[in-house]
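Take a look at my tokenised protein here and describe the backbone shape.
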Amino acid sequence: MNHKKEILKNSFSLLSAQFIIASVAIIFLAITSRLLTKEEMAIVATFYIISSIISVISSFGFPVTLLREVPALLAKKELKKAQKLIKATFLYPLIFTAILSVILIFYSDYISKLLLKTSQYALQIKIVVGVVFIATLLNLLIIILQSLQQFPKISALLIFNNILQRIAALGFFSLWRINGYLIGWGLGIILTIFLALYFCRKYLFIPSGISNFPRLFRFSFPYYVSSFARYFFTQSDQFLVGIFFTPQTLALYYICRRFFDFSYQIIQNVLDPLALKIAEFKAEGFKKIEKAIYFGIRILAYIFVPFSLGLASLSYFILELFGGSKYISGYPILFLLSVSLLFFAYFSFFETFVYILDLPKRKLHLEIILGITQLLLTVILIKILGLTGVALSILFTYLIGIKIAYLWAKEKIKVKVDVKSLLKIISFGLIMTVILIGLQKIYYNFYIIPLYIITGALFFSLASLLTLKKEDWQTLKDILPPKIFELLPFKK
């Protein structure tokens, strides 16, 4: 199998796994949002807050080093060096995570007061920290398997873990409410860990020594800084909501944020193979990259304008369907988060070019700038607009990121934008949004919303097909099966 086919196979394996995981997670969220009180859902939100903080602090930037270095070492048949690096990347973060966990358990009263506004949930915080430690152990094993390029095993583990932990969480919830939910979640992860350890046994349990910590830390330090910057840029909003708002508001934001995260992952999975393809163009010269940017900007609009604005238009319906009546009041937040997905797609697109055009330090600088921007904007807009300000800060930060990445890319190459086509696509998306929202305002019925979705999708699809350029039709012909392509109307 050649390299390109191997990449496509691995990408498809992970994409399929992510789709299954997201489907299971959404169904599970629809169940738990109705079973758990808002206070209990806020405790679940603290799991993700604490998990993301511990993950960043204890990583030391080692995972990126592992993913970059181990494949090269194995290609050179340097198994001992690979084993040393794998053990170091596993043991050092795990030991530091254990130390952090003990400290957080000791201060669980204060954490409960900070995030949940009362110390009565200190026991639940202790359980959360214990589950975070277990989850960190599994994440480290998954990263090892990624470095070994064992993608089918990763996919199987992720699916197995996500189904098992949710079944266990619901089972134990029926016995001990939120405490049982958290314990079941952790037990499900433990069973997956045994399987992951078996897959990694060749690299963890054979005597081979371990890489030197100071040397490895110095090498990984830029990645460590980058992980902090990306935390503030992409994940600090939930922590700030926990600090500034009540547990009930944290629960509401958590539900909205989960749908944003699911969509975020879908977009990332679409863009990752595109980034790999664009990286291949570098060897053919900047002209090829310039053409990829020109074409990519338009194609992304065809994909993510209806995706983003469609989700935004259906915010109320989505929260009623998956969040239950308790969370419907959060639809303006989900609306703004959904709109920001379009800007995230373009930011990721331009950030890829910043990296490909030999500007890795600029990429780090961009992440630091946006991390600080996100933090400051969130704090300022919270004071002015409340929870709406949090969602707006994400949207504005992505816009700023697009502008900076665009300007930096222009320093190396000519960045042309088909403004006329882009405005047409956006206008079609806005009309689709008006149609969807208008139909819901005229007559809202939970069971006929799918008909409204079909109406909006048909309008956008037909309007887009009528205005597609010849080169776009050629691209569709190249990527679609012939029988499906022949069914499309208005071909040029």
